[in-house]
């Protein structure tokens, strides 16, 4: 639940406007002196500590924040994968190169740092220009899924 989703469960009570003459003379039900007797006094609500605990969405008008993909280099694929093996986010998690984030398989981008000699089949990953050249040069293929 977010702060902007909170709604009251009862109707708001009209505030009594005191200190305007009438049958309530002198102090008008405010007592004598003190913070509550002053005009325009604003006491901090006891509920404030709970309101502050709720997570707030970031950004102007709560734009959705897309997480950046996790980065892997070609050199790590060279070490962990064999010839003509399939590279997907699931296989990367199985091999221990990645972990799930909040029980979801993260997006992955493969960068071109290092050497690649084995042909690999890459699916469901973003690939940089340099990595694409190295993978195709080694005889591998890239399948882009939307």
What does this 3D model show about the protein?
It is a single chain. This protein has 146 residues and is α/β, with parallel strands linked by helices. The chain has a domain at 70-143: Ribosomal Protein L15, Chain: K, domain 2. Helices cover 19% and strands 12% of the residues. The chain contains four helices and six strands. The chain has helices at residues 48-53, 74-80, 89-94, 129-137, and strands at residues 70-73, 86-87, 108-111, 121-123, 126-127, 141-143.
Number of helices: 4
The Rg value, from CA coordinates, equals 31 Å
Strand order of the largest sheet: 1-3-5
* SSE class: alpha/beta
Instruction: Give the tally of β-strands.
Output: 6
CATH architecture of the domain at 70-143: Ribosomal Protein L15, Chain: K, domain 2
Q: Mean of residue pLDDT?
A: 83
Unreliable stretches (pLDDT < 50, length at least 5) are none
Question: What oligomeric state do these chains adopt?
Answer: single chain
End-to-end gap: 30 Å
CATH topology of the domain at 70-143: Ribosomal Protein L15, Chain: K, domain 2
Please provide the ordered H/E string of secondary-structure elements.
HEHEHEEEHE
Descriptive tags:
Ribosomal Protein L15, Chain: K, domain 2, 12% strand, single chain, alpha/beta, three-stranded parallel sheet, rod-shaped, 146 residues, 4 helices
How do the helices and strands line up, and which of them pair or pack?
Elements: H1 48-53, E1 70-73, H2 74-80, E2 86-87, H3 89-94, E3 108-111, E4 121-123, E5 126-127, H4 129-137, E6 141-143
Parallel strand pairs: 1-3, 2-4, 3-5, 4-6
């Amino acid at each position: 639940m977010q702060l902007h989703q909170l709604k009251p469960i009862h109707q708001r009570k009209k505030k009594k406007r005191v200190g305007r003459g009438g049958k309530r003379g002198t102090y008008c039900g405010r007592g004598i002196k003190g913070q509550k007797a002053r005009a325009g006094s604003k006491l901090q609500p006891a509920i404030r500590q709970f309101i502050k605990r709720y997570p707030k969405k970031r950004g102007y008008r709560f734009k959705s924040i897309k997480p950046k993909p996790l980065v892997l280099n070609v050199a790590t694929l060279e070490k962990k994968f064999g010839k003509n093996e399939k590279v997907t986010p699931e296989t990367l998690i199985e091999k221990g190169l990645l972990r799930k984030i909040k029980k979801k398989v993260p997006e992955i981008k493969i960068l071109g740092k290092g050497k690649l000699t084995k042909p690999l089949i890459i699916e469901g990953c973003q690939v940089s220009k340099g990595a694409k050249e190295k993978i195709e040069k080694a005889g591998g293929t890239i399948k882009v899924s939307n």
